[in-house]
Amino acid sequence: MTRLSALLYLFLVGLIPDWAHGAGGPTKSGDFSFLSSFLQMIAALILVVGLILLTYYLSTRLMRKIPALQPGNQHIRVLEVRAMGPRKALILVEVAGEYLLLASSGEQLSLIKQVPLLEEIEVVDEPNDRASFFAVLKRAVSRT
Fold it and tell me: What is the pLDDT of residues 64-80, one digit of tens each?
């Protein structure tokens, strides 16, 4: 039985409570089946999660087809942002091959200097003294 047919079966069982507890006819008004209610809740959850995943899949496929959103068409790149204080930062931006140093303070953005760089800026990750959560988790899983 494939996953899709299993999900379809759970959905149908959840929609028709009589199938869940095997009754041949309509249920009495005082009769309550925890199993049928639980299966209906699970079916609704599967339906909602499925719709969310389907929407995500279709929207990412649609976004790839829009030329302005493709990664190769980016003419403005933010190379680095350094926080200087609360709501204050220095921003290094590349625009059409020119490098600009901008200052951001609150709601104002101002040009400080056009930086003449002869070489491409190489982004080097600074070594972090603390291990990341992912590294610690990977190490813990590999021990078991």
Answer: 777 666 666 667 888 88
